[in-house]
């Protein structure tokens, strides 16, 4: 059928055929069947490894009996877990023993169904197709899209060896604005010394929703010591409820609030004069720029009273340098709003006015560990000659160089510009539901000659693939070494693979051979890790025994930053060259709801990770579907009561879910948790549960960073059932 005519009903029919190919999974034992008498009586083994239930990569201890994982614990020696795990980390073994797991390579039939094939057949056929595409269109016709995990250096090496510049991650849907703004201002991305912070402003980051284990433990430590947390969020999030103060700011106006704080600091002489004079560049221009952004002006923009803005600014200044504006992902500074780059720049410059860089409780750069080179393991692939398909790093998007704009792939496929894209390899990533406009993504992927998905489960994106390659679960495999702070750790297998799966290093090695670039992958994973560890006097075998090793580090250099001036650049020429205001400036959000409309917001919750965990038995039991948060006032006008089924509609589609009527959200907004509304029948618990926010969001490209601006969407809501 023509791609433009693929309907949701037809897609679900194809998805049903997919689940038929996996029907044998019904005979695969679930977790309870592993609880045999022999396992119960077996001696307990404790294996240190690394979690992959989210992107944080905490150190875990896998407790194994009789060859079966019986529980997971936080590794007390690893700095990211410190003996504790979140709900997702604890649930990792359930994804290992999930009967819905992918268990063997699959190939799509012409009718859309999938059939099992051997690894040899899959690799050979994919290799031939990739070679043909490279010969006919050039190597840049391949896009490799990932949610970057530990194997990312191998994926990037594969791209270089193949000759494509198009290695892309999920950055524009998460943190592009923040990262581009801080790199332009500080030369690198700092973090907050959460354990010692005394005053923290969080522009939309929900620490108790998008849980980062180590950060949350440190924030709890700071709160116990009397720290004050101020949360800017249109919704009464979990972190807002835990914080000292919640300011229900108008969506997309965080930048105005931060500019007004700078106005107060400068006009009332509350900033760190010594730091600004010695370690920043461009203060004179910034000072002139912020004069117009008074608290009274900001109050009209943000709905936060002027007296509140002044009080927060004075409290912030009183706590410096142990005071900070959180360099958030998501929220007002991440990738959610069209104006988020300038908001993130305002946050970066405001931090500089507090003189908190390198200070206890302020912004800190991580120490670095000097790893070895793999150059003696074989030839280094040449850098690809072609420009990226999305223009990242080019004249129009210079600050997006390392971030990319993967959400623009459908347009590139549809138009053939700047050149034809004909193949995609997608790993640890589900863009059909993680990127805006699910329908457009599905239609675009069907236009490609080759789509290969590497995953542990049949994701929505996998149902649109030509080949699905099952990766071994993180508890079944090793990966490249993981360095965080002064700690080096190793993911090592806790159990042997349960199914006919492979780790991705082996998948890439075999694909490289099939494509004719095998000379760049002549080493094993162990040899790769040994080469990296050599300057530290360690080997893979050492890490297998110890699990976690503390190593010497190089402290960060705060005196000479990686900016052209070597200082914090309050005025950035790099931003000016990219087409933005060189000093932080107010830019309004892109859309504004009219009477009877709402701005649609979405976010994360503590028990799920993106679209990856909704089929996990433990986590599904905790939260099987999402709800639409709506304020009582508009709900009353629309006749909506708590628990009613409602339809949310936007320019890209409509979704149905249950209403949560609550005063914990502004009347001009509605909110839903991201990651639900699974379209893959092969995920039998998650399928059809809740609503898919990505189906409501159009594809947009925000200025400077290229972020996806996913909260720049207006919707209508109506009741459709009780």
UniProtKB/TrEMBL annotation:
Cofactor(s) this protein requires: Mo-bis(molybdopterin guanine dinucleotide)
Keyword Endoplasmic reticulum: no
Keywords: 4Fe-4S, Iron, Iron-sulfur, Metal-binding, Molybdenum, Oxidoreductase, Signal
Molecular function, one GO term: molybdopterin cofactor binding
Signal peptide from the UniProt entry: 1-23
PROSITE patterns, sorted: 4FE4S_MOW_BIS_MGD (PS51669), MOLYBDOPTERIN_PROK_3 (PS00932), TAT (PS51318)
Classification via Pfam families: Molybdop_Fe4S4, Molybdopterin, Molydop_binding
Domain 4Fe-4S Mo/W bis-MGD-type: start-end pairs: 44-100
Entries under InterPro entries matching the protein: Asp_de-COase-like_dom_sf, MoPterin_dinucl-bd_dom, Mopterin_OxRdtase, Mopterin_OxRdtase_4Fe-4S_dom, Mopterin_OxRdtase_prok_CS, Prok_Mopterin_Oxidored, TAT_signal, TAT_signal_bac_arc
UniProt xrefs under NCBIfam families: TAT_signal_seq (TIGR01409)
Family affiliation: Belongs to the prokaryotic molybdopterin-containing oxidoreductase family.
Name listed for the protein in its UniProt record: Formate dehydrogenase
Native source organism of the sequence: Caldinitratiruptor microaerophilus
């Amino acid at each position: 059928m023509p791609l433009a005519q693929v309907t949701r009903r037809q897609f679900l029919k194809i998805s049903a055929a997919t689940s038929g190919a996996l029907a044998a999974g019904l005979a695969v034992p679930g977790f309870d069947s592993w609880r045999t008498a022999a396992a119960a009586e077996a001696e307990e083994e404790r294996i240190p490894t690394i979690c992959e239930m989210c992107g944080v990569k905490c150190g875990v201890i896998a407790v194994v009996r009789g060859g079966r994982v019986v529980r997971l614990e936080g590794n007390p020696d690893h700095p990211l877990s410190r003996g504790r795990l979140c709900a997702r980390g604890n649930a990792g073994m359930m994804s290992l023993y999930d009967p819905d797991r992918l268990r063997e390579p699959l190939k799509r039939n012409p009718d859309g169904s999938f059939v099992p094939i051997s690894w040899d057949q899959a690799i050979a056929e994919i290799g031939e197709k990739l070679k043909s595409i490279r010969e006919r269109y050039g190597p840049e016709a391949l896009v490799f899209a990932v949610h970057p995990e530990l194997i990312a250096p191998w994926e990037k090496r594969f791209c270089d060896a193949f000759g494509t510049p198009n290695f892309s991650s999920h950055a524009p849907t998460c943190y592009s604005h923040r990262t581009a703004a801080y790199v332009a201002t500080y030369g690198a991305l700092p973090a907050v010394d959460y354990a010692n912070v005394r005053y923290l402003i969080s522009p939309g980051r929900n620490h108790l929703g998008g849980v980062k284990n180590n950060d949350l433990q440190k924030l709890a430590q700071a709160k116990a010591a009397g720290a004050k947390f101020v949360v800017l969020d249109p919704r009464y999030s979990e972190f807002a409820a835990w914080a000292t103060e919640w300011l229900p700011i108008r969506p997309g106006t965080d930048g105005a609030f931060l500019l007004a704080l700078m106005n107060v600091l400068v006009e009332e002489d509350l900033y760190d004069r010594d730091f600004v004079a010695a370690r920043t560049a461009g203060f004179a221009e910034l000072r002139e720029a912020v004069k117009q952004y008074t608290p009274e002006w900001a109050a009209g923009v943000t709905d936060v009273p002027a007296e509140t803005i002044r009080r927060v600014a004075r409290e912030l200044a009183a706590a410096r340098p142990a005071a900070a504006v959180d360099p958030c992902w998501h929220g007002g500074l991440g990738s959610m709003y069209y104006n988020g780059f300038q908001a993130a720049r305002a946050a970066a410059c405001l931090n500089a006015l507090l003189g908190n860089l390198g200070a206890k409780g302020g912004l800190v750069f991580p120490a670095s560990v000097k790893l070895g080179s793999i150059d003696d393991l074989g030839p280094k692939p040449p850098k690809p000659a072609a420009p990226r398909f999305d223009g990242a790093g080019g004249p129009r998007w210079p600050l997006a160089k390392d971030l990319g704009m993967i959400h623009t792939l459908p347009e590139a496929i549809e138009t053939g510009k700047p050149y034809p894209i004909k193949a995609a390899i997608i790993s640890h990533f589900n863009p059909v539901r993680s990127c805006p406009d699910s329908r457009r993504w599905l239609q675009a992927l069907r236009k490609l000659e080759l789509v290969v998905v590497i995953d542990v489960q049949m994701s929505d994106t996998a149902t649109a693939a030509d080949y699905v390659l099952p990766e071994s679960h993180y508890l079944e495999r090793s990966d490249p070494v993981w360095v965080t702070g002064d700690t080096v750790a190793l993911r090592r297998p806790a159990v042997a693979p349960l199914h006919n799966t492979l780790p991705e290093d082996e998948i890439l090695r075999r694909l490289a051979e099939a494509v004719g670039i095998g000379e760049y992958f002549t080493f094993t994973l162990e040899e790769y890790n040994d080469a990296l560890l050599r300057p530290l006097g360690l080997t893979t075998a050492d890490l297998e025994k110890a699990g976690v090793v503390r190593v010497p580090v190089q402290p960060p250099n705060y005196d000479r930053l990686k900016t052209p001036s070597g200082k914090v650049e309050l005025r950035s020429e790099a931003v000016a060259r990219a087409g933005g205001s060189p000093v932080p400036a107010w830019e309004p959000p892109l859309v504004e709801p009219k009477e009877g409309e709402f701005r649609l917001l979405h976010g994360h919750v503590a028990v799920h990770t993106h679209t990856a965990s909704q089929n996990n038995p433990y986590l599904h039991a905790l939260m099987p579907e999402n709800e639409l948060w709506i304020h009582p006032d508009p709900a009353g006008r629309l006749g909506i009561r708590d628990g009613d089924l409602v339809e949310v509609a936007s320019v890209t589609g409509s979704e149905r879910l249950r209403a949560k009527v609550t005063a914990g959200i502004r009347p001009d907004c509605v909110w839903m948790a991201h990651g639900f509304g699974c379209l893959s029948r092969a995920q039998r618990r998650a399928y059809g549960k809740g609503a898919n926010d990505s189906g409501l969001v159009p594809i947009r490209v925000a200025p400077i960073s290229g972020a996806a601006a996913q909260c720049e969407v207006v919707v209508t809501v109506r009741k459709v059932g009780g």
